[in-house]
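Annotated sample (chain length 136).
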Amino acid sequence: MQSIVIDSGPLIALFNGNDRYHEQAVRFIQNLQGNLYTNIAVITEVVHMLDFSQQAQQDFLTWVEQAVIIDQGTVEDWESIIQLLQKYADLPADFADASLIVLCQRLNTLDVASIDSDFTVYRNYLKKPFNNLFWD
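Output written by the structure step:
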């Protein structure tokens, strides 16, 4: 089954009905063909951005626990994340994005779901572009 690494943007949109990408996020999840992966850095971003509603935060945390594989390897990826932050300092890349790039490398996938245009610039360690399925 396909491994898809999901960034905070689609997750925020999924749980915020006022987000301009809400309907697209709902369709993306409804049509999902694969396993979603993310990490604590992304989950932290999402909960922070859903701070307008404690219920939305709780709903997200309950859903993500059931629907997404939460990777535990971010601490082991620390050096690689730092290297990517240095490499993409001109964007600037953030910690969550860098951690997801490394997660993609560990999962051997180029498939991501993100609203960020930065994922059109980022490359994996073989210099291959990512395939952003959120825009498909």
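Annotation: Residues 25 and 99 are 22 Å apart (CA to CA).
Annotation: The mean pLDDT is 96.
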